[in-house]
Specification:
Elements (H helix, E strand, L loop, with lengths): L4 H19 L2 E2 H8 L3 H13 L3 E6 L10 E5 L5 E8 L2 E7 L5 E8 L6 H18 L5 E8 L18 H13 L4 E6 H12 L8 E6 L3 E7 L2 E3 L31 H4 L1 H10 L12 H7 L3 H22 L3 E5 H22 L5 E4 L6 H19 L10
Parallel strand pairs: 4-7, 7-8, 9-12, 12-13
Antiparallel strand pairs: 1-3, 2-3, 4-5, 5-6, 9-10, 10-11
Helix pairs in contact: 2-3, 4-5, 6-12, 8-9, 9-11, 10-11
């Protein structure tokens, strides 16, 4: 059944906007070539999108030809401002960008664990407001938040989790109250890191992979056939609770001590480093565990790889992802040395071929993933969701 004229216009407009987002400013002729649409159809959609305030003339092409150069059309970047937050146990990082993802302002602030829920929430919200003001953003369109913990698949809200500060959950509601016109979305930090690695990092050539998060705690994000998998309760990838050999006991429903977390969390890595005499100079910016891994000796990295391979091989046996990314600051600090060691061990433990890669983005992947998600949601709202436009009509 052929699409109605209005549906056809929506599909074509969305396709053109996505091309402008990905390629940057284009001429009408380039849009015609890339979409396969007729010249009159392209002329109509350019006029329609410009009238809607979604695109504007961004310059002229540099082609040498008779007559005036062709106009270049680009997305109106300041049509919407976005904010992204990386919420950690010890603080918050914030970045504000335009609709194209260009950073306008950013900052981070520690939040002491003993100041109480109310003051902690107020500090975090005030930081967002200050960064937005510095960026000249009078009104934020979308706010993307990355936080540790489980996201309830039914409500999209951060669930209460043992060991995580209560202000994490209160922050989402506080931001929605203080920014009533903004669309506020929260996602698990590891899932956002996987999205960033797939779009901008080492997994760009993979539509199926697992990201193993190695930071203060441990986690995993599962991407199968291009889609992020969350599970029935939002808990896909809670690998910290995986029972493994080499720990003092078993994890429980209220705590992952005794699980894989006890082998690969930051505290466990620090203890292992001490056993091998590995020390690292204090760095106010990098986590201690990442510094220890970066300074690690051959023997220490071998021992750490032994531990990580236990978790990775378990994931490989169940999911057969073909690729595992060692994410977070620890995964990035380990680099190819650690990734190669883990891959060698997994190869001995599993018949399933698996490539192990080191993160390209490290801890910054969470903030990047939150910004990408905010940008996608804002563009869906402004451009219209409509049918997915892979083929012009």
């Amino acid at each position: 059944m052929p699409a109605s004229p209005s549906t056809a216009r929506a599909i074509n407009d969305r396709l053109a906007l996505r091309l402008l987002q990905r390629e940057g400013p284009l001429t009408a002729g380039q849009l015609k070539q890339l979409t396969g649409l007729s010249r009159p159809t392209v002329a109509d959609l350019v006029e329609r999108l410009a009238a809607a305030g979604l695109i504007e003339v961004a310059g002229e092409s540099g082609e040498q030809r008779r007559g005036p150069n062709a106009k270049l059309y680009g997305i109106v970047a300041d049509r919407a401002q976005l904010a992204a937050l990386d919420v950690r146990t010890e603080g918050v990082s914030v970045v504000v960008s335009d609709l194209l993802g260009r950073v306008l302002a950013e900052s981070a602030a520690p939040i002491a664990g003993d100041i109480g829920t109310g003051p902690a929430v107020e500090q975090a919200v005030a930081l967002v407001e200050r960064v937005a003001k510095e960026a000249g953003a009078d009104r934020l369109h979308t706010v993307g938040i990355g936080a540790p913990g489980l996201i309830d698949p039914a409500t999209g809200e951060l669930r209460s989790s043992t060991g995580l500060p209560e202000w994490h959950r209160r922050l989402v509601a506080a931001l929605q109250e203080r920014l009533p016109e903004a669309r506020v979305h929260v996602e698990n930090e590891t899932n956002l890191a996987a999205l960033a690695e797939q779009r901008d990092g080492v997994a760009q050539d993979r539509d199926t992979f697992v990201l193993l998060w190695l930071g203060h705690g441990t986690g995993a994000a599962v991407v199968l056939d291009g889609s992020l998998r969350r599970g029935a309760s939002g808990g896909t990838g809670e690998i910290g609770f995986l029972p493994v050999p080499g720990t003092a006991g078993l994890p429980s429903a209220t705590g992952c001590e005794g699980g894989f977390h006890s082998l690969a969390g930051s505290a466990a890595i620090a203890e292992l480093a001490a056993e091998y005499g590995v020390v690292a100079e204090a760095d106010g910016h990098a986590p201690v565990a990442a510094g220890l891994v970066a300074a690690g000796t051959t023997a220490f990295l071998d021992a750490l790889a032994d531990r990580l391979a236990v978790g990775v091989s378990s994931v490989v046996a169940v999911l057969d992802p073909g690729c595992v990314v060692l994410g977070g600051d620890v995964g990035q600090a380990g680099g190819e040395q650690l990734a190669a060691r883990v891959e060698q061990r997994v190869r001995r433990m599993s018949p399933l071929p698996t490539e192990v890669r080191s993160s390209a983005l490290g801890g910054a992947a969470v903030l990047r993933g939150a910004l990408l998600t905010a940008r996608d949601r804002a563009q869906d709202d402004l451009f219209g969701r409509g049918p997915d436009a892979g083929t012009p009509v």
